[in-house]
Each structure stands twice: as C-alpha cells, then as structure tokens.
Design brief:
heterodimer; A: 117 residues; seven-stranded mixed beta sheet; 13 strands; 52% strand; B: 110 residues; mainly beta; 11 strands; globular
Chain lengths: 117, 110
C-alpha cells in the first residue's frame, strides 16, 4: 500500500541551528502539506504546496520556514534558525486530485519529532 | 471564533454501544469534511470524508453533515476497545487550507 515516508524520525538540535525535514509523498499525489503538533496540542496547519509553489501558509509559517520540492519525489521543510518553541512533531501529508480538484483526503507520514535544546 | 471546534472529552462509551462525536466549523464556504483517528504517539489516519449534506456510511462508521448548521458528526456503532483514540475533525476551506479541530478523546469501556 502506498505510504508517505518521513526522515528523520527524531532530530535533536541546538537552538539557532538549521534543520531540514524530509518527506516522500505518495507518488501520484499532487498536493503536499506540512503540519506540526506540539505535545498534547492540536494538529496545526503550516503550509500547502501544489504545482511547485506554496498555495497556502499559516501565520506560524514565517520567514524562518521554507519548503522545497527539489526533485520529483522529495518534499522538504527547512527551519533556518530553530527556537525552543519549534520543538514538536512535524507531519508531512499528501492528497490526490479528482476531476481537477483536491480530494483533501490527507495521508500522513509517521512524523519527524524535533527537539530543540 | 475557532475555525473547527470539538469537545475535548474524554468521552467514555461502553463496549458495543454507539459513540457520537461532534464538530462545528466557522467558515460557511467550507467544502469538504473529514474525520481522522489518532492513536497516542501516532500520526492521524483518515477514517471518513464527506462532501455533501446527509449521511455517509462505511462499515461501523457513519459521518453526518449539515452545512446549514455548520455541523459534522461521526457515529461509531458497536464500539470496540480498539476504537479508543483521539478523533480529529478536519475541514477543507475554499482555499485548500485543511484545518483540524483539537480532537475528542474517546475511551471505550470493556
């Protein structure tokens, strides 16, 4: 069964360091997302990506965040200068299209746990 | 006003009974609606999607949508201990920004 894969599963970093989280979405999906979930809190939307550009982003997704699809398979989230409050589980998700529209049915990876010290 | 609202629970339901989970949303133009299940420490897993008013059934799960009331619900029939999890309501606004509620913790009592 097709699945979304994420690496690393856990990353520990020092405050101020750059972090890159990687995702391989389901191969025939067209819409890609990053969410984060701080421990015990809700799943928060960060950014959506379609047709090689950002389609929507949240207030959380400020200038320290960026996304990229460097090739036909990978989708990355970069955090330029990490802060303590960036510690969270980061989920990548993808969805397919139907009749030219986004089904909105998200398939999530297992997540990358980021710990900022 | 929160975009997607759910009671946080916990909701305790005896095994074999019907669990009823509710969700309201604020953007009247929202187009599609989803229920996800999230076990502790795991990623969300899609259970149901619903796009038009009325009921949609899939096995033991029934999703109900009322756009006029901006209300979505999920019924779980014949609840099993394995249904114990947090259930997340998600709403796809017109702009493809899919927003999640905080989730309702469901506990099925054996």
């Amino acid at each position: 069964e097709p699945e979304v894969t994420q690496t690393p599963s856990h990353q520990v970093t020092q405050m101020g360091q750059e972090v890159i989280l990687r995702c391989v979405p389901i191969s025939n999906h067209l819409y890609f997302y990053w969410y984060r979930q701080i421990l015990g809190q809700k799943v928060e939307f960060l950014v959506s990506f379609y047709n090689n550009e950002i389609s929507e982003k949240s207030e959380i997704f400020d200038d320290q965040f960026s996304v990229e699809r460097p090739d036909g398979s990978n989708f990355t989230l970069k955090i330029r200068s990490t802060k303590l409050e960036d510690s969270a589980m980061y989920f990548c998700a993808s969805s397919g299209g139907l009749g030219g529209s986004n089904t909105g049915e998200l398939f999530f990876g297992e997540g990358s746990r980021l710990t900022v010290l | 006003q929160k975009e997607v609202e759910q009671n946080s629970g916990p909701l305790s339901v005896p095994e074999g009974a019907i669990a009823s989970l509710n969700c309201t949303y604020s953007d009247r133009g929202s187009q599609s609606f989803f229920w996800y299940r999230q076990y502790s420490g795991k990623s969300p897993e899609l259970i149901m999607s619903i796009y038009s008013n009325g009921d949609k059934e899939d096995g033991r799960f029934t999703a109900q949508l009322n756009k006029a009331s901006q209300y979505v619900s999920l019924l779980i029939r014949d609840s099993q201990p394995s249904d114990s999890a947090t259930y997340l309501c998600a709403v796809n606004r017109r702009d493809d920004k899919i927003i999640f509620g905080k989730g309702t913790r469901l506990h099925i009592l054996p």
